[in-house]
Hints:
- This protein is α/β, with parallel strands linked by helices.
- It folds into 3 domains: 1-136 and 268-311, BirA Bifunctional Protein, domain 2; 140-250, Bira Bifunctional Protein, Domain 2 (BirA Bifunctional Protein, domain 2), CATH 3.30.930; 315-361.
- The protein contains 12 helices and 15 strands.
- The strands form 3 sheets. A 9-stranded mixed β-sheet has the order 1-5-6-12-11-10-7-9-8.
- Helix 5 (147-157) runs antiparallel to helix 8 (191-201), helix 6 (161-172) runs antiparallel to helix 7 (176-185) and helix 7 runs antiparallel to helix 8.
Amino acid sequence: MIGDKILKSEERAVYTLRSLFKHYGYLPFKMSKFEEYDLYVRNKDFLIGDSVITFNDTNGRLLALKPDVTLSIIKNTVDGVGVKHKVYYDENVYRVSAKTHRFKEIMQTGVECIGDIDLTDVYEVVYLAAKSLDTVSADFALDLSHMGLFSALLDEVSTDKLVRAELTRLISRKSTHEARALCEKYGIEGRGLEITTALSTLYGEPDRVLEILGDMCVSDAERDALDELAAVCRLLSYTDYYGRIKLDFSVVSDMRYYDGIIFKGFLNGIPEAILSGGEYDPLMRRMGRQSGAIGFALYLDLLEELKGDAREYDVDCLLIYSEKTEAEKVASAKEKIIALGESVYASRVIPEKIRYKRIVMLDKEEI
């Protein structure tokens, strides 16, 4: 702490999550505040919004304040048999706020697992997403979907790009009535209509939804995607978070970039997803990589919307001393408290903004 400034919720979350990611073998990734603009313009559809702050470098190159971290991480990886890059980051990105429509500096943390990845890596990233949400608040939900399965089922509904795009938009909004009306408009009936209705309404406990999908899937592509989704759910069922995980096919992402497991995380009290991620192999292909990738980002700026603060106190012990107290005595007292496994804040007065579990008046009592 500096003076009486208290760490914000998002800043505390960064420190806790950093430790979590390290425990699972993820290494820190740091990048400059800006990248060459060309990196973003080539992949502008991948970005959340297409507004990027640009400026000219001293040598004339067009640079941009980073609106994304994933693209930079991919750029700094290499392919290879058995090669795997596991990194975590906490970076500020610069995007247009959906509320103010002005550029905003957003604190974002997350992980990326890139390279020769397998089922265990996919499961680990999804599990870390759930664990990250739980670190911020125990009152969370994690919704899973699978873009490969979504796309394969949609292949049976229509091959028209415009129709598929509109159906995807309506399904993501759970607009079942409008989706069915669109099918009627384009003469989509029978199994196509059944699939459309299912995708826009399927939501719930993984076991129940997987059973329904098992009866629906007929093609090899559908079966393969369903098998991956089922395998990840099976591994998650052994964790403490399974009860907070739902399957929801209104969770969709751009099929040009995502082709596997995708997910979004929510906290009670925040009306939008605070976490999003998934497998993005098509983006890897687009950037000239042959390996796989999965990751997620947690948008820490949204924590400002949480009502109140889940912490009961900021510090375990508030240590009060007087002007006459010797500095050596204060230092010794702090060390004794820390040795007890407690955090301590020492002050000559009781600060207004500090919440403490207990208070010790150094000149009047023993520790």
